[in-house]
Design brief:
Number of strands: 3
Strand content: 15-25%
Distance between the termini: 15 Å
Number of helices: 1
Length: about 90
């Protein structure tokens, strides 16, 4: 069964192509994943941002309250990867 997701009223964040930097952060005492503008590719050295994010720099922040949140994220990533490895989706 194919699911159509409506995306009209929320942001679309394109991963890959060096458009997004994905990193780790702390937010209000929680370990977090952060998505920021201006990725540099997987081969680039890791950047350390030892400062607050500039206006418009952060695309999304995902505070992780326990490791189950990471498990759910990893499971979703694994499903997307498996689907991508099967080949392109017909339009």
């Amino acid at each position: 069964m194919k699911t159509e997701i409506v995306t009209q009223d929320f942001p679309i964040i394109h991963l890959g192509l060096g458009e997004v930097e994905i990193g780790d952060a702390m937010w209000e005492g929680f370990h977090s994943l952060i998505l920021m503008r201006g990725g540099r590719g997987l081969d680039a050295p890791e950047m350390v941002h030892d400062r607050p994010a500039a206006e418009g720099e952060t695309l999304a922040l995902f505070p992780v309250h326990d490791t189950r949140g990471l498990d759910a994220l990893q499971a979703a990533i694994d499903r997307v990867r498996a689907a991508m490895l099967k080949g392109p989706v017909a339009a």
